[in-house]
Amino acid sequence: MNRGRSDWDRPHSFNASATDTVALGRGKKFGGDMPQWLDSVAGGWEPGGLMIWQSGSVFTVGSARATTWGGATWANYTGSRNIGSVSRQGNGVS
Question: How far apart are CA 62 and CA 7, in angstroms?
């Protein structure tokens, strides 16, 4: 049986939203006597904001090979985690 976090799991998520109506234009506190053309441009604005803070998504490593009847499976690495090194080639590294 395979167990793990789902791809859409976000353990830390904060969402916020805010809107406000600007009191400018016909029928409002300011600019109630402005011409229709100016009211259509400057009146009726509603500024708003949105904020989303959330942790990163799940990182899944796949084997990229058809290892089962259903297709590719997850990678199963059991060796040392201290692998890889930096090699200098010309003016760069890889």
Answer: 13
Are 34 and 25 in contact, with CB atoms under 8 Å apart? yes
**What DSSP letter does each residue of 49-68 carry, written as one string?**
EEEEEEPPPP---EEEEEEE
For 72, the 3-state DSSP assignment is strand
| Per-residue pLDDT tens digits of the chain, which is 94 residues long | 566 677 777 788 899 999 988 888 888 888 888 888 888 888 878 889 999 998 877 777 776 666 667 666 766 667 776 777 777 888 877 6
Regarding pTM above 0.70, the answer is no
| Contact in structure between 72 and 64 (CB atoms under 8 Å) | yes
C-alpha to C-alpha distance for 23 and 16, rounded to whole angstroms? 23
**Helix H or strand E encompassing 78:** none
Q: Which residues make beta-bridge pairs with 53?
A: 14
